[in-house]
Amino acid sequence: MKKIFIMAFALVATAISTTTFAQGTKMVGGAAMYSTKDIVDNAVNSKDHTTLVAAVTAAGLVETLKTDGPFTVFAPTNDAFNKLPEGTVATLVKPENKALLTKILTYHVLSGKFNAADIVKAIKAGKGTAEFTTISGGKLSAMLQGSSVVLKDENGNTSTVTIADVNQKNGVIHVIDSVVLPK
């Protein structure tokens, strides 16, 4: 009887876990991203975003990204930061460069929640390109390449969304493969 109860409990737990996962929880950097957690509480669990989390902490943006928002965050992976010239990240996280780091990080954030479908709709309405104003005040363009959303920064550099629609309690994250930079 005890064995049957344990097996039944395990089946119920698996069913609950599968249902929760099926309702929009995505895996990013080996960790589940729960729509019941905020952007920061999810990002700290992604092994692919340790550089981003360290930069957000150094810039003093943790509390901002824990507020109600909503925010749309284009989240560069560690590999995206590694594409920058050697020593760039180490220089940016120094206290004397906090203003520049903040400008770069907030260039990756939009006020409001824009799911991939919203971005694609704006691209189509803009006849191939949509322009968004970031929290830093800069402009970020979006376009489609095949079925992928590609961002273009103010310098003409591009970044591709590799994982879209990672819903958060206070917005949405889109994982990107390159850091975008303001002028």
Automatic annotation (TrEMBL):
The keyword Signal applies. Residues 1-22 form the signal peptide. SMART domains: FAS1. Keywords: Signal. The keyword Ribosomal protein does not apply. One of its GO terms (cellular component) is extracellular space. Pfam families: Fasciclin. PROSITE patterns: FAS1. Coiled coil: none annotated. Residues 36-180 form the FAS1 domain. This is Uncaracterized surface protein containing fasciclin (FAS1) repeats. It comes from Daejeonella rubra.
